[in-house]
Amino acid sequence: MDKRCTCPAARSYDWCLSPFSADSSFGRGKWLRATVYGALIIHPKLGSPFSFPVPMREIPILLGEWWDRNPMDVLRLADFTGAAPNVSDAYTINGQPGDLYRCSKQETVRFPVDPGETIRLRVINSGMNQELFFAVANHRLTVVAVDADCTMPFVTSFIMIAPGQTTDVLLTADQTPGLYYMAAHAYNSANAPFDNTTTTAILEYKSAPCNANNGKSSTPIFPQLPGFNDTNSAIAFTSSLRSPSKVNVPLQIDENLFFTVGLGLINCTNPNSPRCQGPNGTRFAASINNVSFVLPTRNSLMQAYYQGQPGVFTTDFPPVPPVKFDYTGNVSRGLWQPVKATKLYKLKFGAKVQIVFQDTSIVTVEDHPMHLHGHHFAVVGSGFGNFNPQTDPAKFNLINPPYRNTIGNPPGGWVAIRFVADNPGIWLLHCHLDSHLNWGLAMAFLVENGVGKLQSVQPPPLDLPQC
Question: Where on the tree of life does the source sit, at the highest rank (predicted)?
Answer without folding.
Answer: Eukaryota
